[in-house]
Amino acid sequence: MQLLAVGLNHTTAPVSLREQLAFAPEHLGQAVMAARTWFQRIDLRDNDEAAILSTCNRTELYAASHVPNPLDAGAHFLADYHKLNYSELRPHLYMLPQHDAVRHTFRVASGLDSMVLGETQILGQIKDAIRTADEAGGLGTYLHQLFQRSFSVAKEVRSSTEIGAHSVSMAAAAVRLSQRIFDKIAEQNVLFIGAGEMIELCATHFAAQNPKSITIANRTMERGEELAHRFNGKAIRLADLPEMLHQFDIVISCTASSLPLLGLGLVERAIKARRHKPMFMVDLAVPRDIESEVGRLNDVFLYTVDDLGKVVQTGLESRQAAVAQAEVIIETRVQSFMSWVDDRAMVPVIQHLHENSEALRLMEVERARKMLAKGADIDAVLEALSKGLTAKFLHGPQQALHHAQGDERKQLVTLLPKLFRPRR
């Protein structure tokens, strides 16, 4: 069984490609089952495992499979599922086998591979992804163990180092960028599109600046009203955006929509209604909520998740010592996990030895019973039983030694005395 991780992230692919490879939350379970089926068609077994992590910064397939070239199979699955050209996608993918996949998993869970170094949101996203994979039947012994250990490693890294002590969140970066456009956020009307964890975080940061008003636009009014109430704001429906967008100076959007919510024409009309007063927009969604063409408008300042990523890199040097500590912890835990994998690989061999030994034992016991039934002396029967067992157990090693040549014979000569060393 081979472990693997195949995917892309904010360092290997732009948002324009990441949004093409993203999996909608409601389709994630179906995609996990499709991944398992993809591997099973190749190796004709039913114990392949799969899990998919899809966030604004990464899309990754984790798997455990018997296929001859699992990395290539996983990469082709991602391209085929999303109907993308494999040759164009391949340069942006990382394809990690065995211990490299384990190390990557631990680093991702610990926030070392995030755009915001040390951020904690990724751990919750991994747990959600694994829960979905488990419900879809994608998890088996290997991936279950891998992710349970990744959670423990993440906890150890955060409790033993200061990896997140100086991190600048995406929400804080959005506030910082908006202050380049507007001197006083207290005089601006802020609109949040969506009501998920990222929007909640952004709303918290912007609310601290006491904006003129806060509005939440969400597909589900109940959730929108609940979030708006926390920040003394109001909630509107997504359907109300065309008539109301021009009222807002700052727009932050992060939904799970597969299609853009704000197109070029809609924003153009809003700018015209505002008499070309500047509008600051942040699109944290992948796939994007705001058409990229909107950024060409003279009076619109549009930032994507990648743009904010450049802002959060400030202060990276001060965290390098913590990163080094975290890497040491992770490397130790990788070695521990791979030892567990090696032990698992020996289980079938040990089972086979037990089965063969049991078959030989039963043959000799049956022979002894027949001798006793014929009235043979019990001491003679025991003597025959012990000699028969010994002969049968030694037959295989003796034959192997007899037919071996060169280095193989030298290895057997060294190993066999150790294997048959009597207990004292």
Give an overview in words.
The chain is an alpha/beta fold. Helix content is 55%, strand content 13%. It has 16 helices and ten strands. It has helices at 15-21, 28-43, 70-81, 86-89, 98-109, 121-135, 141-160, 170-181, 197-207, 221-230, 241-244, 264-273, 305-312, 320-373, 378-403, 406-419, and strands spanning 2-9, 49-54, 58-65, 94-97, 189-193, 213-218, 234-237, 250-253, 279-283, 300-304. The protein has a six-stranded parallel sheet with strand order 7-6-5-8-9-10. Strands 2-3-1-4 form a four-stranded antiparallel sheet. β8, α12 (264-273) and β9 (279-283) form a beta-alpha-beta unit. The protein starts with a strand and ends in a 5-residue tail after the last helix.
